[in-house]
Amino acid sequence: MNKLKLSGLLLFLAGSIALMGIITAEALYPSGSGYTTFHSEISDLGATKPPNSLIYQPSASIFNVTMLLSGLMTLMATFYQHKYFKKLLFSIPLGLFSLGLVGIGIFSGDKVPYHGIFSLLTFISGGVSAIASFKIVSAPFKFIGIVFGAISLITWCAVVFAPNIVVPFIGLGGTERWLVYPIVLWITGLGGYLMNITTTKKLGDQHL
């Protein structure tokens, strides 16, 4: 397996593991805890914010390990794809995104301010990465990256600058999921895209 296909495999696994890890952690979270996808942030699966932080096992371990693994896989994929494309405009935000995931996995929600810092890094760099992927992929997937990245960043801006408009409609938890899931879906799709590239072709043949 060449390095580019390995990069695609790592990204596909990172996105899949992140999604299934969140689903599994939510399924195992205690039903009487008050956790809902409307009110609760995804990171509450690892630990709720202080004071009086709540940590429920095995959900916390599943979530934290999932984020750590996804981040490390994405970081490795960033290195391998950069050796092929050499596009810093894409590689830098993707690398920052992977570091953000690693930080979230290490510093759960009760670890302030570190968790918030890494979450912010993940949110912003994830959206930027999706948009910047137009530098390495061709249509129609490049348009998917632009749209999904824009959805994520617009949602983040709405939470920061106009929370009274969005949050009451789908809740804090729903809003965060509109921020996170487009990036998870995009990075999974990007993995599939990279695994399908024939490296014997020139970059121009891929319209990159």
Automatic annotation (TrEMBL):
Question: Per its UniProt record, what InterPro entries does this chain match?
Answer: DUF998 (IPR009339)
The superkingdom of the source organism is Bacteria
- Does this entry carry the keyword Ubl conjugation? no
Spans through the membrane: 55-76, 88-108, 114-134, 146-172, 178-197
Under Pfam families, the record lists: DUF998
Answer whether the UniProt record assigns the keyword Membrane to this protein. yes
Query: Which keywords belong to this entry?
Result: Membrane, Transmembrane, Transmembrane helix
Know the name of this protein? Answer: DUF998 domain-containing protein
Species assigned in the record? Phormidesmis priestleyi ULC007
